[in-house]
Amino acid sequence: MIFSICDVETTGGGVADSRITEIAIYKFDAKENKVVDKFTSLVNPEKGIQPFVQKFTGITDEMVQKAPPFSHLSNKILSFLDKTVFVAHNVSFDYKIVQKEFLRSGIRFSSSRLCTIQCSKKIFPESPSYGLSNIIKHLNIKSTTFHRAENDVIATTALFSILYQKDKEQVLRLIKS
Q1: Domains: count for the chain
Q2: What is the extent of the structural domain holding 83?
Q3: CA 58 to CA 68: how far, in whole Å?
Q4: What's the start-to-end Cα distance of the chain, in Å?
Q5: Which of 66, 17, 16 lies closest to 44 in space, CA to CA?
Q6: CB–CB of 161/32 below 8 Å?
Q7: CA 69/CA 64 separation, integer angstroms
Q8: In this structure, which long-range contacts are made by residues 32-40, counting pairs with CB atoms below 8 Å and at least 24 apart in sequence?
Q9: What CATH number should be reported for the domain holding residue 51?
Q10: 5 three-state secondary structure
Q11: Rounded to whole angstroms, how far apart are CA atoms 165 and 148?
Q12: Distances from the Cα of 123 to the Cαs of 119, 130, 157, 166, in angstroms?
């Protein structure tokens, strides 16, 4: 089974008005327990990034000015996500943002999805917290800085690998793409 582990950074605000500024997706082959493909890109959101978000992520308006807009990446991203399970830490946020960007590009996107927060709660109920930085610290996963799409995908992929291996009830294996 192939999973697409995704993270996005956005302009800020609610799901309805946020736009993607950076996206990273790692295709993960659970049977082989390895990443088999990667996609990452800055994205021109075609609107300003809120100042607190620029400070939080380090992604500035200048950095994304010459990046392609999502509409120019949409077919490649759609192809990349095809026939995989969409995985994210807090999947409802990332999935809704990606889905809205596809809609803006005239594409209806739907996929099976899985949340590593919810999986972590089931598989590691003793963890004091399930935020990405806290759960990977609890599991002794090495990481770099957070709040950049690829760094967060690296951490989420490491977490997902552990979740998949420790999934005694085989909940993750029952998901159909």
Answers
A1: 1
A2: 2-174
A3: 18
A4: 8
A5: 66
A6: no
A7: 9
A8: 33/161, 33/164, 33/165, 35/157, 36/2, 37/80, 39/76, 39/77, 39/80, 40/149, 40/150, 40/153
A9: 3.30.420.10
A10: strand
A11: 26
A12: 6, 11, 16, 7
Q: Where are the beta strands (DSSP E) in the chain?
A: 2-10, 20-29, 34-42, 85-88, 113-115
Any idea which residue has 């095809």 for tokens?
82
Instruction: Determine whether 118 is exposed, middle or buried from the number of CB atoms within 10 Å of its CB (0-12, 13-18, 19+).
Output: middle
For the beta sheet containing 20-29, the strands, ordered from the edge strand earlier in sequence to the opposite edge, are 34-42, 20-29, 2-10, 85-88, 113-115
Cα gap 63→49, rounded to integer Å: 11
User: Are the C-beta atoms of residues 6 and 23 closer than 8 Å to each other?
Assistant: yes
CA dihedral angle for residue 151, residue 130, residue 164, residue 87, rounded to 10 degrees: -60
Give dist(CA 21, CA 91) in Å, integer.
Answer: 17
> How many C-alpha atoms does 139 have within 13 Å on its Cβ side?
25
How would you write the pLDDT of the chain (177 residues) with one tens digit per residue?
Answer: 899 999 999 999 888 889 999 999 999 998 899 999 999 999 999 999 999 999 999 999 999 999 999 999 999 999 999 999 999 999 999 999 999 999 999 999 999 999 999 999 989 999 999 999 889 888 988 876 778 999 999 999 999 999 999 887 776 665 543
